[in-house]
Structures are given as structure tokens and as C-alpha cells.
């Protein structure tokens, strides 16, 4: 940063030789930044200050010196026994630090003594404060801005610290008492001493604060803070003025101390005039507030630049071949000084990333609002797979490991809100797999990478990395929901292989969800799956359907599967309870199973789309599209005989079963139950009502990266129009972005 200030100083001052005998001059423009505006007088003063500034190549390490000076000023109070000064921690007695400090002091002690003497002498001879301040700038012309400030503050600490040391020890040490008398320190006049202490405390505090900010600004890396940014350039130009007013405040403090000792006991009954110190304290407070905001701006700028660099490096790392996955995992889960960045879910012990070396790793990436349903089902699948892979040694020999990667964005919220920390701990405690030890280990650039490359948008995704760290799948959750761990190693090739063995049957629709429904599947059983959120429609439909089966002497099983829209969760729960209480049909008591049913259907749709199988000839795709589209309209039903699906239809099926006695009942003996129902439904009912064209919602946040560019309606086969809508989903506590395809 200092080199930038120096560069700007050269541009503003002019005077650089362009040719022999010629100089280039630049008119000074007042620097204006948010929170700090220089007057015309200060602009002229800035020009005078910059004319004294001629730093050489020396770089003084002032950080340690500043710490020493701050310690002196913190302890320099009226009485070390009854003040906070005695409670201050002692500086670290590290020999290496002491050696480094002595090296710095050897190089600057002369300058410190010279400045102390200069201010003391000129203040006693009645010199103007501005004149003394400019004299200090002349004496320290070869130092950088932060060096001038720390050295002048050190000169003040030398003077001020000695004054209070004599005050504190005069009653305990004869040497201190004699020196206090010789230097005319009014040790017996407590009123005067209290006036000095209270009058200067606020100003000294602001002097330290401004100095700390200037030093911190000087330590910022030039690589990221450049004059090409006009806003940063204007900010940097105000640093010399901050240095000027701080040094001028130091001059005022030393002048007041010297005035007391010079006049000695004549000051006994005189109260110090606090107007000047109060004015300077307010001035420095404004400057400090501005510099503090400047630091925040600079750190944000640096963080953005570093994050951009790290993001590029992360992309490059994933495009490079590796012998194992350690570099990849270390870059994503940045351990820094954290030697054990993971927690083992089974033992709750902290472990090193090395436990994942050369293993297939499933990164479960989510924010802290991951749904209980999703987590519950995922845990069941994970636990069952571990149980099935137990060896004779009693240990699980899973070919992969799961790691939860919790994302809190912005990460500052995690520190700010204890509720987020509690939520993280509660979620992690329930997980039997590996978890990242803290969301703070997932840095900003890693989150940005997940959003850019893996299309993470807060909802859970499951990224699969092979033993070398290559991306086997950008989101294998849909494969997990459809086939469980049978989908290992979760590659595209494996997904295609699994689909080649699937057809549109009831087994596919309900596999792995409910053993009750699965046990119904035999050639002699007729099965209705149905959904919707209209309890009256459900009552009419189930009662009429059961009546047709009884009259036709067939065995009919029915199951209510709820509704896809999770924002209706509470309403669906009440309907499900009513279905069970009134014995209308089978219905799941666990909300997670209902969520899983719809998640599997959505996953089948997304899987087909991702594999490019969204055409009209794909039987599975057409069946899934029908269920999801009819669910948007209200009531719907799927009828199967055993595993074979007979029809999938919308709410008018209720009318079909209601008119059984008057219409298709007579055809059951000759056509059979399903054929008679199907023919009447399609030939009579749908001829009157028509089939509604399809309508789909794709939640961008939950299944990003798998939204088709185009889709045909499964009824009329014409291209569907594409719309985007925004819907607030209170269950998920976020704004869902839905992209809707409809005709």
C-alpha cells in the first residue's frame, strides 16, 4: 500500500524530471471520499506535507514498535494500583520478539529521541502547533507515512510514559521522588493530575486508533490495492492528512505535559483547558471512522480478488489429472491449520482428510435448511447399504464414503447468529457419515465454484468424486432416490445401464418405498394409486371404486400418495390422517415416505432429461410426465393389474367409477374389470371432457442443471411453451425459482 501512496504522491506533486531543465506539474485536486471531505485549507496543507515526503528504500517494521508504544500508553495512568492499567496483560517475553524489537529500536531510536526533543523544545519556546508538526515531517521525511506516525507516537510515549512513571512511583521510590521534584512533576496535586489524565485520555485513544488503522493500511498487499480503482485512489490520498492531524494531536499532548512541568507548582490550582483536546479528539474520531470503513472496503476488495484467483485455481485443479483425490479435497475443504477437518459420524471423533484417500467420495452439499424428509430417507438408504456390506470382521466394506459439506453463505452469518451454529450442530449430530467440522472451512471461492460448476443453489446435491478426484457425477441424488446404492459408481454409464433394465411398471413406481404396496403386486390384484388435495373427491372416488371391485368380485387395493407440492404439507398430512381414520384406503403415516414417492418420480424425470431421453417414444418418460402433470391439476389415479400399469388418468376417473352401475358394469363379464373400465373411461368419459394438456414445474433451486430446452406435450405432442415464475415456499424458507413448461 505504501508504494501506492508514494506513487500517487509523485503524480500529485509533480516535479518529476521529463527532460533536462523541464518539470511537470499537476494541479492539486481536493480529495473527497465518503465520510471525509478535505477543505481547501487542508488541500493546500496536503501539498505542503507531500513536499516534505521523500521516503528512502528503508522498510521499518513498525508493528512490534506500535505494540510496545500502545502498552506504555495503556499503563500510563494516574495510579497503577486503582486503575485498569494494573490489570493489563504483560507483553509476551519471547526472546525472538525481543531481539527483533531491539533491532528495530537500534535503527530508529535516534529519530525517536530527535522528534521528542524537537517537540519538547519548540513547545516550550512558544512555537505554533502547525509549525512544530511540519518540523516533525521535515525530520522524518525519509520514512513512509506509517513510519512517521509510529515514530512520533513513540516519542510521545517516551515523554508521557516517563511523566506517569514518576507519578506512580514517587511515594514508593526515593529515586522516583527526587526525579519528580527535579522535573517539576506536580505529584502532590491530584486535581491537576486528574485533569491531565481525563483531558488527554480520549485524545490518546483516538491517536492510537488512527495510528493502528494507518499501519494496517500500509500492510495491505500492493498486488490487490491499485490506483486504477478511482475510489481506492481517492481514499489513499487522505492518509497523509490523517497522519498530519494525529501528529498535531501528539504535539498538543506533549505541549500540555511540558507546560505543566515547566510551570510546576504554579499550575497547582489551574484547571486545564479541554477545548483543544476535545476538538482534536473529535477530528481524529471522524478520521478513524473513515479509515475503518476504508479498511473494510479494502478487505472486501482483496477478498474478492483472492477469491477470484482461488476460483480459477480450483477450476484448473479439477481439469488436471491426479494420482489420488487429496489435492481436490484439500482445495474444497480448506483445512488451513485445522489438522482434523472432518468428524466421523459413527464415532463422533475428529479425523484427517486422509481417511478419504483413493476412495470414491460422495459430497452431500447443502445449506442448513436441508429437509428432515430428505435427510431421513438418505440416512435409511445409507444405513441399509452399510448393513448389507458388513464383512466377517464386523466392519462395513463400503466402496464409497459420504461427506456432508454444509454451506452458509455469507459465512459471516454463521458467526453472527448462534441459531445457525446450533442448527449445524443438531444436523451433524444426527448424521452417521463424515461431516465437515465447520461451515467456516468451506471458503467463499469454494462455494462460488460449487455454484458455477455443479449448479448448487442451496438445495442438496450429491457430487461424486472418483478415487482420483475426477467428477463421476455432478449430482447423483436422483440415482440414489431411484436405485439406492445399486447405482454405484454413480456414473452416466451406470445410469444408462440401469435404465435399460427398467420398464414402466408399478414395481418401478413404488420400489423401495413401502413393503405393503410392494406385497400387493401379484397378477390377481388390482391396485389404485391416487393423489390430490380434495378430501371430498377422495371420499367419492375411493368409495365408488371399492364398490365397483366388490360388485365385480375382484380384489382391489388402494393407496393415497399425497401431492407433489410440498407447500401443502400440512393440508396433505390432515387428508392422509382422514383417509386412514375413515378407512378409505392405505396411506403413509410417515411424511418422509410421501416426500420420497414424489422425489423418486421427479428424479426419474430429471434422469431421463439428463440422458436425453425426453422424447415421446420413451414409455417411462411419458408415464412419469402424466403423473406429475395430472398432479398439478388436482385429483389423479394410476390403475394397475399386478405390476402392469393399465392407465394413468386425471380426476375424471371419479366420474368413471361413479357411473359403473349405469354403464360399463355389463361389460365386466366379457371384457374383464380393467378392460371394461378402460374402454368406458377413454371412449365415453374422455370424449366428453377431453384430456387436459400437460403442465410441469421445474424447481431450479432443487434440481439445477437438468431443465430441458424443449419438451412436447404428452397429449397433443406439440411443443410446450416455456415460462419462468417465482413462488414463495414457506416450508423451505426461501424464494423458489420455478421454471414452468406448459401448453
UniProtKB/TrEMBL annotation:
InterPro entries xref list: SEO_C, SEO_N, SEOA
Biased composition annotated in UniProt, kind: Polar residues: 1-27
Positions of the Sieve element occlusion N-terminal domain: 40-322
Swiss-Prot/TrEMBL GO biological process terms: phloem development
Source organism (scientific name): Raphanus sativus (Radish)
Pfam families for the chain: SEO_C, SEO_N
Protein's name in the database: Protein SIEVE ELEMENT OCCLUSION B isoform X2
Chain residue ranges for the region called Disordered: 1-28
Domain annotation Sieve element occlusion C-terminal: ranges: 494-730
Amino acid at each position: 500500500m505504501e508504494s501506492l501512496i508514494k506513487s500517487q504522491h509523485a503524480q500529485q506533486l509533480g516535479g518529476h524530471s521529463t527532460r533536462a531543465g523541464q518539470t511537470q506539474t499537476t494541479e492539486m485536486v481536493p480529495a473527497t471520499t465518503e465520510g471525509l471531505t478535505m477543505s481547501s485549507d487542508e488541500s493546500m496543507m496536503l501539498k505542503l506535507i507531500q513536499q516534505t515526503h521523500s521516503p528512502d528504500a528503508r522498510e521499518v517494521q513498525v508493528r512490534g514498535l506500535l505494540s510496545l508504544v500502545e502498552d506504555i500508553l495503556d499503563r500510563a495512568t494516574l495510579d497503577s494500583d486503582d486503575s485498569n492499567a494494573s490489570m493489563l496483560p504483560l507483553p509476551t517475553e519471547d526472546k525472538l520478539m525481543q531481539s527483533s524489537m531491539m533491532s528495530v529500536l537500534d535503527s530508529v531510536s535516534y529519530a525517536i529521541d530527535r522528534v521528542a526533543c524537537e517537540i519538547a523544545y519548540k513547545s516550550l519556546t512558544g512555537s505554533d502547533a502547525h509549525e512544530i508538526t511540519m518540523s516533525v515531517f521535515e525530520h522524518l521525511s525519509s520514512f513512509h507515512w506509517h513510519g512517521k506516525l509510529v515514530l512520533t507516537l513513540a516519542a510521545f510515549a517516551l515523554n508521557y510514559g516517563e511523566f506517569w512513571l514518576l507519578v506512580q512511583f514517587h511515594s514508593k521510590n526515593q529515586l522516583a521522588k527526587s526525579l519528580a521534584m527535579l522535573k517539576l512533576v506536580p505529584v502532590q496535586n491530584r486535581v491537576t493530575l486528574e485533569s491531565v489524565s481525563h483531558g488527554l485520555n480520549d485524545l490518546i485513544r483516538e491517536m492510537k486508533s488512527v495510528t493502528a488503522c494507518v499501519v494496517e493500511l500500509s500492510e495491505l498487499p500492493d498486488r490487490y490495492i491499485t490506483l486504477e480503482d478511482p475510489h481506492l485512489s481517492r481514499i489513499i490520498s487522505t492518509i497523509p492528512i490523517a497522519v498530519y492531524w494525529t501528529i498535531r494531536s501528539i504535539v498538543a499532548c506533549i505541549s500540555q505535559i511540558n507546560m505543566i512541568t515547566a510551570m510546576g507548582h504554579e499550575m497547582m490550582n489551574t484547571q486545564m483547558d479541554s477545548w483543544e483536546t476535545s476538538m482534536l479528539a473529535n477530528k481524529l474520531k471522524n478520521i478513524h471512522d473513515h479509515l475503518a470503513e476504508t479498511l473494510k472496503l479494502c478487505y472486501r476488495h482483496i477478498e474478492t480478488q483472492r477469491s477470484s484467483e482461488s476460483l480459477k485455481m480450483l477450476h484448473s485443479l479439477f481439469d488436471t489429472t491426479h494420482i489420488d483425490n487429496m489435492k481436490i479435497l484439500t482445495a474444497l475443504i480448506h483445512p488451513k491449520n485445522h489438522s482434523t477437518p472432518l468428524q466421523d459420524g459413527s464415532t463422533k471423533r475428529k479425523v484427517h482428510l486422509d481417511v478419504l484417500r483413493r476412495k470414491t467420495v460422495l459430497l452431500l452439499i447443502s445449506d442448513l435448511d436441508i429437509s428432515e424428509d430428505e435427510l431421513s430417507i438418505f440416512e435409511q438408504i445409507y444405513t441399509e447399504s452399510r448393513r448389507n456390506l458388513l464383512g466377517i470382521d464386523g466392519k462395513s466394506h463400503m466402496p464409497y464414503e459420504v461427506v456432508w459439506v454444509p454451506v452458509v453463505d455469507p459465512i459471516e452469518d454463521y458467526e453472527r447468529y448462534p441459531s445457525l451454529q446450533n442448527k449445524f450442530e443438531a444436523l451433524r449430530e444426527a448424521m452417521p457419515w463424515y461431516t465437515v467440522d465447520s461451515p467456516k472451512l468451506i471458503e467463499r471461492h469454494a462455494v462460488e465454484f460449487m455454484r458455477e460448476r455443479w449448479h448448487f443453489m442451496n438445495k442438496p446435491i450429491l457430487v461424486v468424486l472418483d478415487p482420483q478426484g475426477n467428477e463421476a457425477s455432478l449430482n447423483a441424488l436422483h440415482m440414489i432416490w431411484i436405485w439406492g446404492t445399486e447405482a454405484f459408481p454413480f456414473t452416466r454409464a451406470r445410469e444408462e445401464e440401469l435404465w435399460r433394465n427398467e420398464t414402466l411398471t408399478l414395481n418401478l413406481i413404488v420400489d423401495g418405498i413401502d413393503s405393503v404396496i410392494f406385497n400387493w403386486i401379484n397378477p390377481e390384484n388390482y391396485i389404485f394409486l391416487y393423489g390430490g388435495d380434495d378430501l371430498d373427491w377422495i371420499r367419492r372416488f375411493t368409495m365408488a371404486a371399492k364398490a365397483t371391485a366388490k360388485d365385480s368380485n375382484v380384489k382391489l387395493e388402494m393407496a393415497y400418495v399425497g401431492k407433489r407440492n410440498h407447500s401443502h404439507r400440512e393440508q396433505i398430512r390432515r387428508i392422509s390422517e382422514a383417509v386412514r381414520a375413515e378407512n378409505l384406503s392405505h396411506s403413509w403415516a410417515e411424511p418422509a415416505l410421501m416426500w420420497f414417492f414424489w422425489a423418486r418420480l421427479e428424479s426419474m424425470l430429471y434422469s431421463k432429461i439428463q440422458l436425453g431421453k425426453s422424447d415421446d417414444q420413451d414409455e417411462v418418460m411419458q408415464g412419469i410426465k402424466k403423473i406429475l402433470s395430472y398432479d398439478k391439476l388436482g385429483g389423479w389415479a394410476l390403475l394397475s393389474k399386478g405390476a402392469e400399469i393399465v392407465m394413468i388418468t386425471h380426476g375424471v376417473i371419479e366420474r368413471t367409477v361413479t357411473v359403473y352401475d349405469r354403464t360399463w358394469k355389463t361389460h365386466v363379464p366379457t371384457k374383464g374389470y380393467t378392460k371394461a373400465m378402460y374402454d368406458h373411461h377413454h371412449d365415453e368419459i374422455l370424449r366428453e371432457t377431453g384430456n387436459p394438456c400437460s403442465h410441469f414445474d421445474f424447481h431450479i433451486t432443487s434440481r439445477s442443471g437438468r431443465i430441458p430446452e424443449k419438451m412436447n406435450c404428452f397429449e397433443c405432442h406439440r411443443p410446450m411453451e416455456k415460462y419462468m415464475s417465482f413462488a414463495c415456499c414457506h416450508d423451505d424458507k426461501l424464494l423458489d425459482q420455478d421454471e414452468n413448461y406448459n401448453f
